[in-house]
Amino acid sequence: MTSKKRIAILGSTGSIGTNTLDVIRAHPERFEVVALTAAKQVERLAEQCVEFKPRVAVVSDAGSAKKLCELLLAKQVSTQVLYGPDALITAVLESDCDTVMAAIVGAAGLLPTLAAAKAGKRILLANKEALVMSGNLFMDAVRQGGGELLPIDSEHNAIFQCLPVHYSKSPSQHHGVEELWLTASGGPFRNTPIAELSQVTPEQACAHPNWVMGRKISVDSATMMNKGLEVIEAYWLFGLPIEKIQVLIHPQSVVHSMVRYCDGSVIAQMGQPDMRTPIAYGLAWPDRITAGVQSLSLTQQAALNFMEPDLQRFPCLSLAFQAGKQGGTAPVILNAANEIAVAAFLDNALQYLQIPEVVERVLNTTPPSTPSSLEDILEVDAKSRVLATDVIQRLHS
Ligand code: NAD
Ligand code: MG
Q: Where does 1-deoxy-D-xylulose 5-phosphate bind (predicted)?
């Protein structure tokens, strides 16, 4: 066996981060953890450092860094502690990692993930918002850096598994692919009467029927903005026009996505709804390793159903399709407004049904442009956040 892979995990205390460590824990002969990062969950990060002894650990602010240093000193762990957004980039570039799990939630993950792309690392991409915001720029950075980009989002990981191995070398040739079918569970409110949706709470929105995930993506799954972001993510990853990317509601979350080919074949990837499967796939690719996931039993499984999404019920999905088709900075605006709206909803400062309202108003008041640099993207992101905050304030007054 060759030398161990050296892994940096951006967002190690989150749902994807802890699942990644769970897979790594079972394969100490294959993987070494060299960097771990978190925003503020210092205690959990300290426990991870004690167990995995990374070279570097990063938190978001000086107070958290001080606390982490104290906890590590007490356990005689010599991990270097850094803090702040730039330190996330340092963790990617100076920890000697060869693989980066990009699992920070939202736009906060963009810069370190982009740095990993430029540096030619193997990127395991969970942080879909980074790609939605910077699509062209990000894919160019991956090509120029010469590293590998492996999707961890279960749908995109499924599609990656269903495509020919040489697909990503020349996606523009399409290799007989006619359509991508992204499956979606429909979330906790798939059958809730629309009249009742104005009253739903963050707790109800975060209670996903099939997947256990962080709070932001759980709300996105309830509104189906998550699927909308995934359509844009698929567009960039696989180079097919948005019109060729279909969304299918599939309440059982067994088929994780499908590829339809020109010869009539449809290839699907199936499995338990457990993120450790795509994470293990990304970590070991092109090998396969155990993921700690129970095997799927189709005979014990209820029928598998598929249906078209109801766009009246899920206006966020329409907004994302609209932004994806517009292109340019429209997905940046969509993502920024959504992050602000979802944070307000989770804070009990916005009603559930007002999430699409905020996103739509911000999209309609900001004409999209063609970004020519990262600075352009960051500027549009910042402006859209201010606008979304204004819209929310006006909804209250
Ligand atoms: P989470 O909220 O559970 O974890 C987020 C992680 O990012 C935490 O470690 C947190 O400390 C860190 N973080 C948050 N804000 C930060 C900031 N400003 N600066 C630095 N670090 C910050 O989220 P999650 O569910 O693990 O999702 C992570 C990403 O993976 C998201 O982009 C999500 O869309 C994507 N994803 C998640 C799942 C899932 O099953 N959870 C599935 C597919 C894709
Ligand atoms: Mg997904």
A: 128, 154-155, 185, 208, 221, 226-227, 230
Give me the helices (H) in the chain, please. Answer: 15-25, 42-52, 62-74, 85-94, 110-118, 128-145, 154-162, 202-206, 215-223, 225-238, 276-284, 315-326, 330-346, 354-365, 374-396
From atom 32 of ligand 1, which residue's Cα is the shortest distance away? 127
- 201, part of any domain: no
Which ligand places an atom closest to the C-alpha of 253?
2
Number of domains the chain contains: 2
Any atom of ligand 1 within 6 Å of the Cβ of 16: yes
Which tens digit of pLDDT belongs to each residue from 95-122? 999 999 999 999 999 999 999 999 999 9
Ligand 1 pocket check for 362: Cβ under 6 Å:
no
> 198 a known binding residue?
no
Separation of CA 376 and ligand 1 centre (Å): 24
Residues of the domain holding 60: 5-151
Check residue 190 and report its DSSP letter: S
Tell if the pTM clears 0.90, that is, is over it.
yes
Enter the ipTM.
0.99
CATH number at residue 134: 3.40.50.720
